[in-house]
Each structure stands twice: as C-alpha cells, then as structure tokens.
Amino acid sequence: MTKFDKDKIETAVRHILEAIGDNPDREGIKDTPARVARMYEEVFSGIDEDPTTHLQTVFGEEHEELVLVKDITFYSMCEHHLLPFFGKVHVGYIPKNGTVTGLSKLARVVETVTRRPQLQERITSTVADAMLETLEPHGVMVIVEAEHMCMTMRGIQKPGSSTVTSAVRGVFANDESSRQEVLSLIKG
C-alpha cells in the first residue's frame, strides 16, 4: 500500500495559496492545508484497493434473471484538473450458476473505483470488468451519469450538462431486448 503523505500535501497547498497571491497564514485559511490533506486522504482512499475484493462474498441463489442496483451516488476527482465530478451509477447483471453477491457489495465496488483520480469512462469499464471477472455472470451492464466541475465551473462553463457512459458485457452486448429492459428500468 502506498503511504499517504499528508505533510507533502499540506506543503503543496501552502505553495498554491502563496502562488495565487494569498497569505497561507491568514485567519480564514491557515488551517486549509491540513483540511485539504485530510480531504484528499478520504477522496483518494481507493487508489490501492482492488474492487474485486468486495465481490468475493457470494450466495448460492437459483436466480438467473436481472439484478439491478440503480442510482448509486458517487463523487470522484477528474484526473485532468483535480476537480470533482459526481453523479449516479446504475449496475445490472444476470447471475450465472446461482452466483449472486450482496447488493451493498455493488455499491462498494463503485465507491472503491471512484475514490481515485479518475475518468468517467474508466469508472464505467472498471466496474463492469470487475463484476465480469469475479462473478462470471451471463452479462453486465453499467451506466454512469455525471456532472463534471471541469466543464461547469471552468473552461466551457456549461452547468447542468451531464455525461453518460455505458459498459455492456456478455448477453447485454448481443441481446437488444435485455439491454432495453435495463434502460427502461433505469428510467423508471
């Protein structure tokens, strides 16, 4: 496991505050470097964590039809600008050979994958591939909807715009009706 270096982050934040022309010893921001270091430790806690470990708990259940957990809230940091992006992840799979996992385990996979410098596209495929590799289901479908602060508060400045990505594996890749079932259930 990589050692998280809070002191280095605090020093870097002090340098940033100085570089933008502020006084890092000013009353309102004198504790900001320590606060930022603690925040980074939390939001990047998934860097050395393997998401498949959460899928090791399985149950034998004769269910080979859709399991869908939708609206899993997530927060992540764009690796290009170190600005947040956030939204919802929808995870669906069709178990094979009676292998199902706990519903909370799917949310834990999402949390692990999103708690590192990321791209939305990578989150989508990493969650799908972790499920496919570990659970070996008939199919997996992951859809991520997010708003990116790097698009809303800087650059193009288009608040309210959302980005949608999907990863489709197994039976969902070949069966339009299965894909449509998931999409209609997500839309509600």
From TrEMBL:
Superkingdom field: Bacteria
Keyword Cell membrane: no
Residues bound to Zn(2+): 78, 81, 150
GTP cyclohydrolase I domain mapped to chain residues: 9-186
Record GO terms (molecular function): GTP cyclohydrolase I activity
Pathway given in the UniProt record: Cofactor biosynthesis; 7,8-dihydroneopterin triphosphate biosynthesis; 7,8-dihydroneopterin triphosphate from GTP: step 1/1
Keyword set, alphabetical order: GTP-binding, Hydrolase, Metal-binding, Nucleotide-binding, One-carbon metabolism, Zinc
Pfam families: GTP_cyclohydroI
Enzyme class per UniProt: hydrolase
Gene3D superfamilies registered for this protein in UniProt: 1.10.286.10, 3.30.1130.10
UniProt EC number: 3.5.4.16
Signal peptide: none
Cited HAMAP family: FolE (MF_00223)
Family recorded in the similarity comment: Belongs to the GTP cyclohydrolase I family.
Protein name: GTP cyclohydrolase 1
Organism the protein comes from: Geomicrobium sediminis
